[in-house]
């Protein structure tokens, strides 16, 4: 029973810490664009069909 005097304040402290961390991540904008980064990861920047990439490749070739 005496362990509750230690565990309850520890649980409250961890809960407050988690809430503060969540608020900090929301305010820093980490959840603003949830779809963009996964889609940009899959896009190939060297694709010649993308506008502008064909021109750059043509200029590189001698």
Automatic annotation (TrEMBL):
The alphabetized UniProt keywords are: Membrane, Transmembrane, Transmembrane helix
Q: For the region Disordered, what residue ranges are annotated? A: 29-62
Keyword Metal-binding listed: no
- Please report a single Pfam family linked to this protein: FixS
Give me the segments passing through the membrane.
Answer: 6-26
Q: Which InterPro entries does this UniProt record tie to the protein? A: Cyt_oxidase_maturation_cbb3
**By its UniProt entry, which PANTHER family does this protein fall under?**
FIXS PROTEIN
Protein name, UniProt field? Cytochrome oxidase maturation protein, cbb3-type
Source organism of this protein record: Acidihalobacter yilgarnensis
């Amino acid at each position: 029973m005496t362990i509750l005097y230690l565990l309850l304040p520890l649980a409250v402290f961890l809960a407050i810490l988690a809430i503060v961390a969540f608020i900090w991540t929301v305010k820093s904008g980490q959840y603003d664009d949830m779809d963009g980064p996964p889609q940009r990861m899959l896009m190939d920047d060297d694709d010649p069909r993308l506008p502008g990439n064909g021109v750059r490749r043509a200029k590189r070739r001698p």
